[in-house]
Amino acid sequence: MVRQKIQIKKIDNLTSRQVTFSKRRRGLFKKAQELATLCDAEIALIVFSATGRLYDYSTSSMMQIIQRLKMHTEGSNRFRQILHNQAECDNNGATSKELTALTLELKQLNGEELQGLGMNELARLERVVESALGRVVKKKNDMLISEITKMKTREIQLEEENAMLKQLAETTRNAAELGSSVESITNSDGLGGRCPEDDRSVSDTALKLGLPFAGGDC
Q1: CA distance 50 to 57
Q2: Is the residue at 19 inside a domain?
Q3: Between residues 75 and 216, which one has the greater pLDDT?
Q4: Which of 177, 207, 175, 165 is nearest to 189 (CA)?
Q5: Domain presence at residue 44
Q6: Does the pLDDT at position 192 exceed 90?
């Protein structure tokens, strides 16, 4: 009969869990003893049960094995630290070389440190400079066009404002002239002493303007 495979998960039943722990612990220790005997391995096992009880097995002194593990761990940490420091030095060296190369290229683009360059390197620098100059000229032209457009828009706005001011001034001047004419007519009527029958043109003018006609005594 085929043995049923047990699903690996926590056993809910407390009694079954304790029985399984006891059987598996003995089996684990037996396997460790066999491995140590067959392969001359140095083994240490430490197990705490769910209730906190300690079970241990070691092929020699447990403290010696733990001390050996500690020394091995410290050595591994030192080795990892050495590798990390070496990697940082390599990265710093690569960064320094890259910075030096970029600085030299910048000087060459500015027309410096050109000695020792061949025709191919000079031609490459020329292409780079021409490309950069083209981008600069395009950016400058775009800015000039933008400024010209803004100035034209401002010019149109100023012309519209000027036209409005002229119209307002014309309206104000016409109103002032009309008021002056009315005042002159009124004064002349009061000083001349004319009657409405003698000068109907004046009264007609006053009536058209909506003003009271002040006639003199007849």
Answers
A1: 18
A2: yes
A3: 75
A4: 207
A5: yes
A6: no
Q: Highest mean pLDDT range out of 112-126, 142-156, 203-217?
A: 142-156
| 212 domain residue, yes or no | no
The C-alpha atoms of residue 214 and residue 75 are separated, in whole angstroms, by 125
The identity of residue 200, as a single letter, is R
**What average pLDDT does range 166-183 have in this prediction?**
81
Establish if 176 belongs to a structural domain. Answer: no
CATH of the domain at 41: 3.40.1810.10
Q: Output the CA torsion sign for 91, 72, 31, 7.
A: negative
Tally of domains in the chain: 1
The Cβ of residue 66 has, within 10 Å, a number of other Cβ atoms equal to 13
For residue 89, the SS3 value is helix
* Residue 46 lies in domain: 14-91
CB neighbours (10 Å) of residue 119? 7
pLDDT mean over 162-174 = 88
